[in-house]
Sequence to fold (729 residues):
Amino acid sequence: MTAHTVSGTAEYLALVRRRRLYGAILVALFFVLFASGFTVAEDRNAGGFLDGLHRIFDFPKEIFAEAFTNWQNLPRLFVAAIPSLIETLNIAAIATLFGGLLGMALAFLSTRGLALWPRLTPVFRRIMDTMRAVPEIVIALVLIFLLGVGPVPAMIAIAFHTAGALGKLFSEAAENVDLKPVEGLASVGGNWFQRIWFGVMPQVAPNWSSYALLRFEINIRASAILGFVGAGGLGYDLKTALQWGQGKYDQVVAIFAILFLTIMIVDHLSDRARQRLVKGGALV
Amino acid sequence: MTTASENFDTVGLKQSIEGTFRFRKWRSIAVPFAILGYLIYVFFAFDVAGLASRARPENAAVLLGDFWSYKTHITRDNRSGDVVASVEGERKGTYPAGEGPEWVAMGETTAISLYGDASVQYLPENTAVINVPDFGEITTQVNARAVVLRLPDGKDIPEWMSVSRNRVSIDQGNWRFSMTPARTEVFRYQAGWELFFFTLDSPFYGKSVGELIALAIWEPRVTAEHSNIVAMIDGFWNNKMWRHGDVFWAMGETVLMAFIGTMGAGMIAFPLAFFAASNFAPAVWLRLTCRRLFDFLRGVDGLIWTVILSRAFGPGPMTGSLAILLTDTGTFGKTFSEALENIDNKQVEGIQSTGANMIQRMRFGVIPQVLPLILSQLLYYFESNTRSATVIGALVGGGIGLLLTQAIITQKDWEEVCYYMILVVLTVMIMDTISGWIRKKFIKG
Fold:
């Protein structure tokens, strides 16, 4: 009896030691991978890490110095940037709206137990995976080639990705739905659309709205970046100001500031709204 | 007394319920109207009506055609009389002199057979005979500085032909012909991505899959210095048209950017998260400083970081990965500190009761609770950052993003755009599968 316990303890300790060894090897491997990866990335970079490190504040210093001397321009530039900001926000909002609607449709088509055509759920899942994987910039650039420069290509590109991303999150939330209301509606002869609208929607609405809000936040950033490649909005203004270089740095600062403030404000508002949504209670 | 108060309550309740219903009814009408109004506003703000005039549908045809097909040029220099066959008219895809695809017979006269019995013959003295079924034989000839055209008897110039003094061109959809005083050309379109595996100078070009397998396994060596399979891999990897080696490197670079950015951010954010979590922070000012730092890193968008970092480090993958690192440090700092605030304190107290010091309490009481969440967050972001790294790569000039934008800017290499896109999608999907598997198998967080 005692011998058995002793050998059990020894075995346990050996097991712990082995686990720790594996853990240590994994961690060491990770660090080797990270360090060598960083070296490769640094080699292929135009400037080295240590050479650039002390210059990291040079550019901010330069632009802020210029903005500081021309501080009386800043309020005017701030106001001048507002139309572009509205365009960036519009792109994000419309893309979230259309992407969300398409995501809803995809979610219903790809959720087990709710799907209109249960056999096709894997197909719709793969479609969503592909939509999520395609980078927005590619769609935006191709659409700029087809549709000309403007906000619509960026909007479609972001909406496309949003549909895939939200579709996945929506369908995950819909999988946990209580199916009893759906069955109840089916028993009184409700068709598929009625079952979804009255049985499922009320259950998933808080979660879905919270995901959509989070996505709106992400889409503002995406729309600013796409502006940089010629899709209008703040990103485009930033690019032209940067290409101009010295003399327009006060505008760069104004755009940086307005983008930063917008993201902070939307971040804060959506954070609070999401907490209210998830913890119960309506948004309005 | 009690009855009265109950009555009063019922009335109040009824009123409040009716109020709620009124509000809901009003909302269910107002919200769709508000959205509709917004859509109308955006319709004008985005100038959707003007989109039709700016859209170039002919570009769509070019793009879609290029996605899945390629063209072979058969060109005669009308001054020297040399005939050259090349894929997409590129120097790298040119056939050796006097050779061409099997539908071209080169010699004194060059005979090109096209679709549906159509054919073109390059005759001496800069003459070409084009045979179009259901129309007849068209003859064109360069005469001094002009191109002379002879149509079959009794026919007018059809709508698929355009004629001017020094140019005749024919567009039949899947093939084209043109003659100018300088050169005579035939373009033939075919489905597929030609030269995708081997270029024309490779000994393996034009072989079927069966022949390639035979060559790889038992046939004698084609080249003296390598075995066939090594030569094949070398031919594919160093394909001059498609540059598979470079493309795979670029894809690897993009994944590397995502890896360094995500993992670096995790390593920086993890210790800082302890200072930002209310139950671990040694001082309030430190906690608030960390929080504001995270907010700042997150709020300054990846775009702004990219601009600032490019100035310091120059273009390249490291700049991109540092931009990802900075933004994600903010995100991770926030989520990790929230995870630390939500831990169950009983485990920590249990370990403290055995006399464990601070570090031991952390190691055995706290980290096991938050590690699954942190690891699954890291995996999730690694995967999603691979996609972002494509976009950031386009801005900082690194990885597959750079190749993609370069190919798009030329406005003619759409098959390469298609190839890179498929590669990105496949990579992200593979990573999705692997990280899903790791999460399910090892983390369950």
